[in-house]
Amino acid sequence: MTATQHSRPIPVPEPLSELHDLNGAQLSLPISAFMQSIQFLTSPGQLNLGIVTPADQCHLQRIAEALADHHVPSSQDNHAWNSLASYIMQLRDKYQIQMDLMRIRPMESDQKRAMLLEEIQRQSQQLDQYGQAHQELTELLGALQKLSKEWKRARIETIITSLVSSTPLQGCRVVKVTRQHLTSLGLGLGSLNKLYLVFEESTATELECHKLINDIARDFGDVFEENVAQNLARMAGNYQHVFNVDEGRIHQDMQHLANRIFSARPQSILWERSPRGLEAGGTGTGRRASGERVHGGGGGAGGGGRCSIGSQTPGASDTSIFSMAQPVFEPAVWDWPVLLKRKMPRYRPLWWWRKKQNEATEKGIWTVSLVRLANHFTHVGQNYYANMLNNARLMHGHQARVFELAMHSLTRCYKALQIEQGHAYLIQSLVYLYQIQQDAQRTALQPAGSAKNNKPSSDQPSISSQI
Predict the structure, then answer these.
(1) Quick one: which of 442, 51, 388 has its CA closest to 231?
(2) Which are the contacts of 67, defined by CB distance < 8 A and separation ≥ 6?
(3) Cβ–Cβ under 8 Å, residues 395 and 388
(4) Half-sphere exposure of 62 (CA within 13 A, CB side)
(5) Which end of the chain is more exposed for a tag (fewer CB within 10 A), N or C?
(6) Digit-coded pLDDT (tens) for 53-75
(7) What secondary structure letter does DSSP report for 242?
């Protein structure tokens, strides 16, 4: 069973009803108890264990039919009684072998066994809630993918234009390139109808250009951070189950249950140690301090912050999946050659010796394409959401493994209790069989008239014929 499917509650066996003979009369206590044991051993839950074979099922059912019609061996037929007891002991030994292999503890009482079955039922319901959280995490993956696609270049370019219009531009002009600007700004045809920030070297140095672009990048980062906070708050409210999973509690409950059922924990029961958080964004990446930003330059491998998916233990952040450092939109050293370019007007003489002289002595201009700046911001923002999506995928896979392992462990605990209960029923059946034999001997000692009604009819098979 995968985590995307809700766990089905494990059924708790219901008490067996009182049994009656073929005429509707209530059976004696030993016979009724013995038949209840047969009824349990031939139930679907026991047959699914594979210990009681179909041949055993038919044999036990024929014995139950004979008992229901008061057909018991003669008190003098020791061979029939011994054969029946030997058959019950063979079944008991088959259960004992399974108990030894799985290292199952014998239960001290039926009450303790019933308490463990109720605990299995409770943990089954708890895992059903865990499955619901996993389903919501699957939906969250889709929401993050959609959110990442919303940060397109056209939208970001609009935000940048708004920021530029509200930012004091000293020594800089916002120019929408026309054909007349191509020669004066040294631009190509691909720049037509695009917005540029233009700095004259006579009024702004390269460092001053850097400062202005960094100011715009920080302002954009504030807008981005505010938008992220709103999105995460909405997601935290819509997918609350994702953040309410307590894996540590699930592990502790399962561990405690296994210790009460098994004398030594089998390798197939639960995990070796408490599940820990998975590190996202590569090995060795831990959670960063709150408010710290991670650089997201266009030339780097990661455009957003990296975070760890913390273990879901009490006191952990409810939004640990989103505990990521905010991205840095300020260009890195390797980004500036792409964003900030020095241009020379093309109306000057183009002879190679005059051009070289002019570039060395005359002032040029610095240009920043808002399209390229928008591309840079888009890359950083999408990388941020891509890292967040990667974290969610890691958490999704982690939850799936924990869910499947917990369901396997819980099912194995339930199977162990079923085996132990079948073994206990067979031990009790030997006691009931002895009591039935004693009752048969007492009946044989009664006067003939009083025992007449208990004599089996000649056309019905007795238990001795079933051995």
Answers:
(1) 388
(2) 27, 31, 34, 35, 463
(3) no
(4) 14
(5) N
(6) 999 999 998 888 887 776 777 76
(7) H
pLDDT tens-digit series, residues 439-458? 877 877 766 555 444 444 44
Residue 222 lies in a domain: no
Q: Indicate whether 430 belongs to any domain.
A: yes
Token pair belonging to 59 = 């044999």
Most confident of 180-184, 450-454, 462-466: 180-184
Q: What DSSP element (H or E) covers 256? A: helix 247-261
3-class SS of residue 324 = coil
**Three-class DSSP category at 210:** helix
Cβ within 8 Å of residue 155, ≥6 positions away: none
Look up residue 140 and give its amino acid.
L
Per-residue pLDDT reduced to its tens digit, 214-231 = 999 999 999 999 988 888
Rounded to 10 deg, the angle between the 153-165 and 206-238 helix axes is 120
Does residue 381 belong to any structural domain of this protein?
no
Structural domain span for residue 102: 29-71+79-121+416-446+456-466
In a domain, 431, yes or no: yes
Q: What are phi and psi of 262, to 5 degrees?
A: -110, 140
Q: Which two tokens stand for residue 212?
A: 């202005």
Residue 107, both tokens: 């239960």
Q: How many domains does the chain have?
A: 1
Q: Are 97 and 373 in contact (CB under 8 A)?
A: no
How far, in Å, are 68, 389, 447 from residue 443 at the CA level?
17, 79, 9
